[in-house]
Design brief:
about 160 residues; mainly alpha; homodimer
């Protein structure tokens, strides 16, 4: 059987692979959709594809400060895609601009992901207090990746209905 | 910093917590939907809520043999909810029957989950060959839980459109 250090590395790798898999799926999905399809609601009266795309980018962008990797790259997206719902009347960037931002955010995240070791991943993220973290050590940086992976899958399932 | 054995245990726990979170979300969601809502399509021309619920149960049930925990509890669901699409003309169990099956499958899975240690989780599942597993040790039992968690989130996102 493997050493426990190898086991920890493998477990971290598996979690990051699941994150990558969802991102790859998202990229493939948005490549397969026309701008017109993305502008449609995923179901009558529900969010549009473009809003969900912006929402996912804004959430990924927010992982930078949350994980201590730096400031948001597109802070203005928070207002449009997180604090406000679809059809708020706010202007959305174009689909091609959003696709570019998705690439930019993921490239930045990946650089940091690759230089984070197991101890770094299991350290406290910036929103949990040291006191709470002492009691709940699962509230670490890697857990943010796990929950965000599920969040992305949830919205990909909806965006998948556009084609 | 924690010992690496503690780290491995924590990482496994985080992955199982993500699985539980999706299952809790699914339970909450189906409790909030009427039978009539569940019988509707999540978007025009797409799958119905009841088909997706059956599909998720059949996938979870399939984890029993895949993880070496025993036979499927509801093998007949494979034909209806995995091998055939919605509106295949096959009879579906009632919503209340499906809700009961979901509980039964999850109870059985949980019993096994709780008695599996880190070495067990990182061992080979029944579909990957020993040769492939030697090259790709991430294709272990716990990785099945990770991918199924994402799969569940994907369909929950769709079922969420029913209310």
């Amino acid at each position: 059987m493997e050493t426990t250090a190898t086991q920890s590395n493998l477990l971290v790798k598996m979690i990051l692979m699941a994150w990558d898999a969802q991102n790859n799926y998202l990229n493939k999905l948005i490549s397969s959709l026309t701008d017109e399809q993305l502008s449609k609601e995923v179901s009558p009266g529900k969010n549009t594809g473009i809003y969900l795309l912006g929402h996912l980018i804004a959430v990924s962008d927010g992982m930078l400060p949350l994980l201590g990797f730096g400031d948001r790259l597109f802070p203005e997206m928070e207002e449009v895609f997180l604090k406000n719902p679809d059809k708020s009347g706010k202007n959305f960037p174009s689909v091609s601009e959003l696709k570019q931002r998705l690439k930019t955010v993921n490239a930045k995240l990946n650089t940091h992901f690759q230089s984070t070791d197991v101890d770094g991943w299991l350290s406290r993220h910036t929103v949990v207090s040291p006191e709470d973290f002492a009691k709940e050590p699962h509230r670490n940086k890697l857990n943010v990746v796990i929950t965000r992976t599920g969040h992305m899958a949830y919205h990909i399932g909806q965006m998948r209905l556009l084609n």
